[in-house]
Amino acid sequence: MAGDHRLFTPETWKNWDKTGRAEALQVIKDFIQDDPDNPGFSQPEEAADLSRALYEILSAFLKGSLRREHARPFFAEIINLHPDLASQLVEVSMLLDLENSATDRMGKNREPLMALLKSLETDKLLKERLEIETLGEAGVVKNKKTFHTRQIKVKTKLFYKQQKFNLLREETEGYAKLVTELNEDITDRVTPKSMIQIIRSLIGGFNLDPNRVLDLILESLECRPHHHEFYTGLLKLYPCESSTISELLGFKLNSYGLNGRTGKGIYTTIALLIQANILQFSDIYKWLTPEDSSMIEDYQREESEAKEIAMKIHIVSTKDKDKDNKDKEREDDEREREEMRNMEKFYTNQKVQLCIALLEVGAWDNFNELSRRFPDYYLVSCPPISQALCKLIHATIEPMYRKVCVLPSRLKGTVVELINNSLAPPPAYTFEDVCNTIFPMLCALGPHVYHDPGLMYKVLRIAKVALKQVTISGDNMRQDFYYEFLTVLDEVLLPALSVLDSNPCLAEEIWEVLKVYPYQHRYKIYGRWKNETHAQHPILIKAKARLLKKAKFIMMRITKETIKPVSRGIGKLTHNNPGPIFHYILIQVQLYDNLIGPVVDSFKYLTSLSYDMLAYCIVEILSENKDRTANDAMAISPWLQSLSNFCGTVFKKYPMDLGGILQFVANQLKCEKSIDLLILREIVQKMGGIDTLEDLTSEQLDAMCGGELLRREAGQYQQERNIKRSSVRLKEALLENNLAIPLLLLMAQQRSSVVYNQTESPHLKLVGKLYDQCQDTMVQFGSYLFQMVTIDELSDRLPSIGTLLSDCHINADVAFFLARPLFTNMLNLKYDELRRQDRGEKKLTIEQKKKRYLEACNEVFGPIVVKIRPHFSCKVWEDMDPSFFLTFWTLTMSDLEVPTHIYEKEIKKIDINPSSSKRKKDTDRLVSLREKLQEEEKRQKEHVERVRARLQQEKDKWFMLRAARSPKNDTVTAFLQLCLFPRCTFTALDAVYCSKFVKMLHDLKTPNFSTLICYDRMYCDITYTVASCTEQEANRYARFLLGTLETVMHWHASQSNYEKECANYPGFVTKYRVSRQEANDYVDYENYRHVVHKWHYKITKALVTCLESGDYIQIRNAILILQGILSRFPAITNLAAVIEKRIEKVKNQEKNRRNDLYVLANSYSGRLKAAKSTLMPETDFHIVPKRTPPANKVVNGTTEKAQAATNKGDGKTGGEVTENDKEAKVESTEATNGDVDMKEEKRETRSGRKEGDDKKDSEAKKDDKKDDPKKKTKDGKRAKPDEEDEAVEADIEREGSVVSNSSSSSVKMEPPEGSTRGSKRRKTEANSKKEETSHKEHKHKERSKRSKSHEKSRRSRSGSSENSPHSKSRSTESDSPSAQSESRKKHKHRKHSSKSKLAEAVMQEKTAKHISRKRASRQAHIGNSVIMDVETLDSDENDFTLADEDCSVASHENQEPPRKRNLHKTEQKHSRTRSRHTRH
Q1: Alpha helix stretches (DSSP H) within 789-918
Q2: Rounded-to-integer distance, Cα 252 and Cα 1092, Å
Q3: Is 1295 left (phi over 0), alpha (psi -120 to 50) or beta?
Q4: Of the candidates 1262, 1269, 1209, 1458, which has an alpha carbon nearest to the alpha carbon of residue 1373?
Q5: In 10 A of CB 340, how many CB atoms?
Q6: Is 1428 helix (H, G, I), strand (E, B) or coil?
Q7: pLDDT digits (tens, 9 = 90+) for 779-803
Q8: What is the rounded average pLDDT of the residues 656-667?
């Protein structure tokens, strides 16, 4: 007890007589004056202070600070202050005695202490409290041994001997009086304190048994529980222990249990005593039955039965239906009997009854303590307990409910009385009280709140008011309510809804609260509700099993004819637990896509909560880790296609939240998974009415070039009224979730990377499909946004063009596709602003409007040009101006032309004639529509004229002339790479735009832009372009080619068209004069026809190469392009025959192998055959040059043999055959580096002729590898006309082809017989252009003289060496069986050969003169002009040069490839060398 805190100071003991005694006495009085009947030391805090005061006074006395003569009177005085103060003094004395016994130095103080206590006459208390040894030493007990013996006897009598009261001795009058006193009316005069005095008097006066008195008090409490506060207060004063009360109550419980049923009052009594802390829960619990283990076993058995029922749902029964119905009736009867047994079991279960009583009296904490002894939700699964808990919640929540949900005065709701118990949970008056008191009760109740739907309505209505205030203010209290109520929804309300039978009103009430939360919170709750919560409650397991059984029954009967009854059934099933139903339905939809229509129609009776749950179920199934590809990763899985179609249909028809599904697509794009874009595509198509532009007809594409009204009327088939609401819902979902622009940017980024990142797909077919899907969806989604979202909303969210190109890593085509509407709007706003500045705005002329428009363009596009310039290489702007780049990407088809014929067609369709069948409203609508179309056409014509004026002004600075090198190739290359090719494959409308834009450049007479070179680059080699296209890109590229071919063929059709639209245009200049005083040269009409023929030939060659590659992608794209350009290509019969042959080959190879290619080829084959009547022969297409007689080639003055000896007897080819044995038609000669090259057209001249050489020669080895050499006629006649197609085909093979992706081998090239040969490519040097003509003429004369001299010397030698074996000439190519036989044949006919050589020399001399005259005339025609050097996109020597060949009269489509011609030149050199060796 010694401590730092002291009540008295040493001054108190020093001045004891003066002030110390009074001070100490006052301190003692202060502790006991508050309540004399209830001593201060009985209270914990005050008792400690009183004991400390006594301890300090006694210690001062023992230590000598206080004299003994002063101590005794003081203690005697304070003992008289309170009856129990003597007992307290003895207790403190015992403590001091223990301290004295523990320390030797204070042992001397024990005797004075004992003497003091003995003098106070407290012997009785001392005998009760002190030890026997202490009593003996103090002299209180004379004989310690005798006292100890007597003490043992007394204790034995008290505790071990049963006293039997003599009932006759007990007077009944006492019990009568006691019963009367206990059951009188309780008033303010009757208190527990007064009643305890009466009871004590009665017990003492009538010698009553205290236990029987206690039992009577408990009986009174059981009969009058509403006065529980009086009786509990009385029992607190009654001297009894908890164990005694538990024994009395336990005896009663056992006696009631033997009778079969227990009264309710005793449980209420027990509950009140436990709540008042008079009876300990552990003391009474051991008297309750049944055992906990048996109750837990019952719960586990019930849980296993529920799981067994759930498993039986998935078992297919093959029993008789009648038998099944009987079994079903039997099961229902057994279920009813089982429920009755369960209710009886609850009434006989004492623990359950005690729980009910605890909840009725409001002992919530004690109930929680009891429920922890059992599994979760076990006790509340008993209906009586859950109903009692619902009543408790009703009573607690009633004040708050009346506060926030006020009914009209004429309506009187059911008033719930509050619990009349101060120890019960306090009523809730605020949202904080609801959060702290009501929610824990609800969570303990769980789904078993379904017993009281009214309580669920109350909670939901209070929550709805609270959550509205949460969104306004953000204090912590309401934030707690916001999140705590999510737990209530998850654990209580939604599971309870699953147990109820069809209750759509409650479902709608829950949705009114749930819709306040974002979809992230809702979907998390739905996921637990659907997948986790039901597993925790046997009742939910059974409910789900019954639900699935009914769902399967309904789904087996769903058809188009049974939609109405089925929809009602589905609605009833989904009102309360939609998750399992939707999961099963979605599985069926994935398997059977024909169910989509009926299933969607059957959802018309669903609640809002069910629709939201359906959206979650769709996202959940899409999130499953299922394979999204099929057919060895070559196609998208059918289940994903079906589910996507279902999504688009159901989201369009019903008001469902789109936030979850849109965010799912965005997350998939972030993970670089573009296959799920199919979902977004279906949603936008069905809800927004925006379809892709790929399947539109030509008329629809023309309509899309018009204004908004024309596009809506003629460009698409969607009815606006059917999609108006759904389109608005989609726009609101995109803007609310801030997904509009992010989705566009993600699609654009995925489009650029899908080819590289789609590594899980082993086949290019799927990769191409994913790329097309990404591209089409991006364009479709962007078109929808530009149509629905206002420009202001779009500009606030869309990054700038510079940010798109740099930070967002977006390609130029996509960046301008996104920014183009913004640029157009900026231009229109600026134009309107400038017009309004003029006072006479409405009186402005067309020229003035054009001027304002040009000013607006300069102000708007000037800063944009500055922004885009740094994002491209500086070298790009050397070839074209950035303004041209911006102009190309910002214009659309609506800016270039007006589809007047479509406007006229649509206006003619409108029938405004009034009739009886038409209402006046419809007539007025049609009149208004016609006027709007006419007005729109007028506005667009004015707009096109303004754009034309802008282009006319800007064209001069688009392409810069560079003096150091030829500008046109680089210009065209930059234009193709940066503008034309990226945009022509973007959309079908862009493909048409690109073809029209090229023609517009030509029509504007754009300086430094060559139309011929541009078209030549497009057509000359499209193999790589075709091979690198996806399926949709191939279709768009075909539209682009078709548009350009229409322009080209329009000029080709008649000379008047050509002269009117092409002649004297800068785009058709072929030669630029050095002197500006001289006019440039232009391509004439016939040369242009030759060029067009070459382009057709090049297209044919490229497509044939793709068809023969064997690669799936190339074959498919080639056929798609052929289908797309069928109306303009092929236009020549022999080219069509070549293509048809390759198509037939593809059909034969791909049949029963790759059926999709077979179907494509078969379709095109039929269409090509139908179009044969429109084809023209080559002679009608262009003027084919006539063939000239054969001529021998003169090389270095030496003539070579043109005729070989013929084998006698067997008719086979024999003798020596030189290279010039082939007859040729000489077209032109070229002077290149001093050599004369003959451009000849080889033809078939003799039967059985073959070229060859010995086996050691490398050229002979190449000839041996040739496949299927053509057989020649025996008499050497010219090839028949019907072999012309085969000649063209062989020429295409000889031209070579681009190596396909699947093969790296090149095609062997062999010149055909009987076919014309084109001119050889000119190899001019830049530093010798001016001296070319004179140099060629001089070299030709020198070579002619040498040729004549060599011929004379050879004639003289041939006469002397005719019989010499060395005079035999060896041929460079021979197909003879052996060298020996050839030698014998040559020896026999050497005389004849000598004569033939003489004749050949004469013929070659004449031919040389003819060639010289022809070249001289051609050089004179050329004059001093500088021929334009046209480079191609690549430096391959096989490319066709436009300036040298295509613009010349002698241009032909079947020109021999330069590589093959080089081989011929090499063979000629070898032949000449061997001839010299032979002669020498």
Answers
A1: 791-797, 801-805, 812-837, 846-868, 876-879, 882-890, 893-896, 900-909
A2: 117
A3: alpha
A4: 1262
A5: 10
A6: coil
A7: 999 989 988 888 888 888 888 888 8
A8: 93
Helix (H) or strand (E) holding 109: none
Query: How many CB atoms are closer than 10 A to CB 478?
Result: 18
| The length of the chain, given as a count of residues | 1480
Residue whose C-alpha is closest to residue 544's, from 806, 318, 309, 383: 309
DSSP for 1094-1156 reads HHHHHHHHHHHHHHTS--HHHHHHHHHHHHHTTTTS--BHHHHHHHHHHHHHHHHHHTTTSHH
Q: Beta 635-636 vs 1235-1242: how paired, if at all? A: unpaired
Provide the CB-side half-sphere exposure for 1195 (13 A, CA): 19
131 close to 90: Cβ distance less than 8 angstroms: no
- The fraction of the chain above a pLDDT of 70, given in percent, is 70
Residue 183 has, within 13 A of its CA and on its CB side, a CA count of 13
Q: And the tokens for 1198?
A: 């030496």
**In the chain, pLDDT over 90 holds for what percent of residues?**
31
The three state secondary structure string of 736-795 is HCCCHHHHHHHHHHHHHHHHHHCCCCCCHHHHHHHHHHHHHHHHHHHHHHHHHCCHHHHH
By C-alpha distance, which of 1441, 1234, 1218, 1429 is closest to 1320? Answer: 1441
Question: What distance in Å separates the CA atoms of residue 1022 and residue 1433, rounded to the nearest whole number?
Answer: 12
Nearest to 689 by CA among 709, 714, 718, 664: 718
- Residue of 493, 477, 507, 513 lying closest to 443 (CA atoms): 493
Please say whether the beta carbons of 139 and 118 come within 8 A: yes
Would you call 1421 exposed, middle or buried from its count of C-beta atoms within 10 A (0-12, 13-18, 19+)?
exposed
Contact assessment for residue 196 and residue 236, using Cβ atoms and an 8 Å cutoff: no
Task: With beta carbons less than 8 A apart as the criterion, state whether 177 and 222 touch.
Answer: no
- CB count within 10 Å of CB 1060 equals 10
Instruction: Tell me how far CA of residue 839 lies from CA of 300, 849, 851, in angstroms.
Output: 91, 13, 15
Q: Which residues of 678-716 are buried (b: 16+ CB within 10 A; e: fewer)?
A: bbbbbbbbbbbbbbbbbebeeebbbbbbbbebbbebbbb
- Retrieve residue 27's tokens: 């301190």
* Distance of alpha carbon 936 from alpha carbon 712, whole angstroms: 13
Model-level pTM? 0.71
What pLDDT is stored for residue 842 in this prediction?
A: 66
pLDDT in tens, 869-881: 888 888 888 878 8
User: Token digits for 98?
Assistant: 């223990």
717: which DSSP letter? -
**Which CB contacts under 8 angstroms, 24+ apart, belong to 1341-1349?**
1341/1412, 1343/1194, 1343/1196, 1343/1197, 1343/1236, 1344/1194, 1344/1408, 1344/1409, 1344/1412, 1346/1196, 1346/1197, 1347/1194, 1347/1196, 1347/1197, 1347/1198, 1347/1199, 1347/1404, 1347/1405, 1347/1408, 1348/1197, 1348/1405, 1349/1197
Could you count the other beta carbons within 10 Å of the beta carbon of residue 1029? 25
Start-to-end C-alpha separation, the chain? 145
CB atoms closer than 10 angstroms to residue 1301: 15
In 623-759, the DSSP E strands lie at: 629-630, 635-636
Strands (E), 301-391: none
Residue 1170 identity (one-letter amino acid): A
What is the rounded distance in angstroms from the CA atom of residue 307 to the CA atom of residue 299? 13
**Structure tokens of 1103?**
């497509």
Instruction: Quote the tokens at residue 850.
Output: 């054009």
CA 1351 centroid distance within chain: 83
SS3 for 561-589 is CCHHHHHHHHHHHHCCCHHHHHHHHHHHH
- Give the number of other CB atoms < 10 A from CB of residue 16: 20
Torsion angle of C-alpha atoms 40, 45, 49, 54, degrees rounded to 10: 50
Based on the number of CB atoms within 10 Å of its own CB, is 669 exposed (0-12), middle (13-18) or buried (19 or more)?
Answer: buried
Q: At what angle do helices 264-275 and 228-237 cross, to 10 degrees?
A: 60
